[in-house]
Amino acid sequence: MVQQKRFHRKKFCRFCAEKTPFIDYKDFRLLRGFVTERGKIMPQRLTGTCAGHQRELCASIKLARTMALLPFIEK
């Protein structure tokens, strides 16, 4: 049995590519893209963000939830 190689596109950090100085917790439209429909924060291996930006992203999502800009759980 010969397995075919699948093409995997290299994931890149969106914030490094755009040279974003910081991730703002008030930008809930951006943050909503990194949260699943169940309300969980998407992991770094799925989003492709670097470690530093992933930590900053998690902190800003949690702050946005506390300020009631993002829901904790989607209905």
Unreliable sequence segments: none
How much of the sequence lies in strands comes to under 5%
The mean pLDDT is 90
Q: Work out the oligomeric state of the chains in this entry.
A: single chain
The CATH architecture classification is Irregular
Structural class: mainly alpha
Give the termini distance in whole angstroms.
45 Å
Instruction: Identify the CATH homologous superfamily.
Output: Ribosomal protein S18
The gyration radius over C-alpha positions equals 15 Å
Looking at CATH, which topology would you report?
30s Ribosomal Protein S18
Count all strands and give the number: 0
As for the number of domains, it is 1
Main beta-sheet strand count, sense and barrel state? none
Q: What is the string of SSEs from the N terminus onward?
A: HHHH
Binned, the helix content reads: 25-40%
**Text of the CATH class:** Few Secondary Structures
What's the overall geometry? flat
Q: How many helix segments?
A: 4
